[in-house]
Amino acid sequence: MPTSALHVARTGLEAQDARMRVIANNLANISTAGFKRDRADFATLAYQEQRVAGQQSTNQTAYAIGLNLGTGVQVIGTTRIESQGTLNQTGNALDLALDGDGYFQVELPPGGQIAFTRAGNFTLSPQGNLVTSQGYSVTPPISVPAGSQNVTVAPDGTVSATQPGQAAPVQIGQLQVVSFVNPAGLRSIGDNFLVETAASGVAEPGQAGQQGRGQVRQGMLEGSNVSVVEELVDMIEAQRAYEINSKMVSAVDEMLRNANQTL
User: Fold this and answer.
1) pTM higher than 0.85, yes or no?
2) What is the DSSP string of 41-87?
């Protein structure tokens, strides 16, 4: 029994350590544009059945309850919380935010893999293409002709610019917003990028503002949806749980020491 209790306490320590790592990552990205906080999810490990409920206790009676001993806890995954972050005004015409669900599409080198992001802090390449801060092209490509003025992005993703010598703006591209059946199934690869998985479903590109997709807000960036207060409360809970499991290890160790001395 004491050895089993040590194992259970160890799984608790490992689980709370993983939870603290998730919380630390959330707090570290509190200023990251478009970041979505993660939550650690837990599940019990397998139970050891000493007696099954309904098992015969005598020839005429059966046990009303069973005797099951748990073997601990494990982290089964991290859930990304997809709630909307605060939209912050920046005044930069190439800063774009999504007001609602969906993602921008970006082409990653090499190979042209498509990634998805909520961070809309875009800029122009030397060739006039709309790119991320890492230089990755937005897809479908948006190219701003040289000398263009007053680049505007409508809520539906229509990109327009005023050409030299012309009074009326001209449409130069159309941003697409991608939706997923299960956005929580997307895999994070760093640099604010997510990639499609079998769990997320196939990317469904479309026009912003249609079929549940968010609208594009020009001159704004979506902030992180991390709440400092909520993360600090979770951190205190994890710390207390870790301390309790540490005390369990100490208590079982003391029990083993007393048993050795007695025997």
Assistant:
1) yes
2) EEEE--EEEEE-TT-BSSSS-B-SS-EEEE--EEEEEEEEP-PPPPE
